[in-house]
Amino acid sequence: MTQQPELNVDPAELAKFGELAHKWWDRESEFKPLHDINPLRLGFIDGHADLTGRRVVDVGCGGGILSESMAAIGAQVTGIDLAEKSLKVAKLHLYESGHKVDYRCIAVEALAAEHPGGFEVVTCMEMLEHVPEPASVVAACATLVKPGGWVFFSTINRNPKAYVQAVLGAEYLLGLLPRGTHDYARFIKPSELARMARTAGLELVELKGMGYSVLGQRYFLNDDASVNYLAAYRKPD
Predict the structure, then answer these.
(1) Which parts are annotated binding residues for S-adenosyl-L-methionine?
(2) For every residue of the chain, which 3-state class applies, written as one string?
(3) Coiled-coil regions in this chain (predicted)?
C-alpha cells in the first residue's frame, strides 16, 4: 500500500477556525479585522496583477472573504482550504452574494501537483504563520503560478514589536482577535520569506507594511514591515 504524504497542517489550527466558522461573514465578530483589512489586501493585489479576467487561486481561503472580493471585480477564482466547516460557510455565502468561486478542500501541495502553472495569480494571505512548514506552501504557490504570474503573501514579522502589537495588543489589550489566534514562534521575518521565495524561483517586487490606528480604528498600508506585511512576488518568464 502506498503511504499518503503527511498534510502540512496543524489539526489544532483547523479545529480553532472550525469552531468559529459560522462567524466568517459577521463583520462584528472575531473576523472583523479580516473584513477591515480586505480592501487593503484587494487593492494591493489588484494594483499589481489587474485581476479582471485572471485565473486566481486563493490559498487558505477560509470563509471566502478575499476570494469573493476578487471574484466581484472579475477574477476567475478558485479558493482552497483544509477547514471543511469554513468552506461550507464560504459556499453557502455564494447564494447570498451571487458571486462565483470554485471552492475545494485540498492542500496547496496537492493542487500544485495537479495544476502546475495553472494560475496567473496566487494569493496566500494570513496563512503562512498557521502551518508547520511554510516553505512547503511557498514552493507550492510558486509551482501553481505560470511564468510571468504573480504570487502574493501576507503574514507577521517576528520581533519584540510584533509580539507586543500582534499578540499582546491585538489579542489581549484591544481584543481585535481571539486570544490564542497566533503563535509567536511561527511568525516569519521578511528575510525568511524572501529566502523561501528565492528558493522557489520567485522574485520580490514590493514589500508593504500594514499599520493600525487605535484612535482612528482603521488599518492602512505603509513602508513599515516590522509587524504585519504584504509581499508581491513574480515568477520570471
Answers:
(1) 41, 60, 81, 125
(2) CCCCCCCCCCHHHHHHHHHCHHHCCCCCCCCHHHHHHHHHHHHHHHHHHCCCCCEEEEECCCCCHHHHHHHHCCCEEEEEECCHHHHHHHHHHHHHHCCCEEEEECCHHHHHHHCCCCEEEEEEECCHHHCCCHHHHHHHHHHHEEEEEEEEEEEECCCHHHHHHHHHHHHHHCCCCCCCCCCHHHCCCHHHHHHHHHHCCCEEEEEEEEEEECCCCEEEEECCCCCEEEEEEECCC
(3) none
Measured CA to CA, the distance from residue 100 to residue 76 in angstroms comes to 8
Query: For residue 91, how many other CB atoms are within 10 A of its CB?
Result: 15
How many whole angstroms separate alpha carbon 50 and alpha carbon 54? Answer: 8
Rounded to 5 degrees, what are φ and ψ at 150? -110, 145
Is the pLDDT score of 98 beyond 50?
yes
Residue 19 has pLDDT above 80, yes or no: no
CA-based angle 43:123:140, to the nearest 5?
160
Give the separation between CA 38 and CA 123, rounded to whole angstroms.
13
Annotated binding residues, written as ranges, equal: 41, 60, 81, 125
Top-confidence residue, 105 or 2: 105
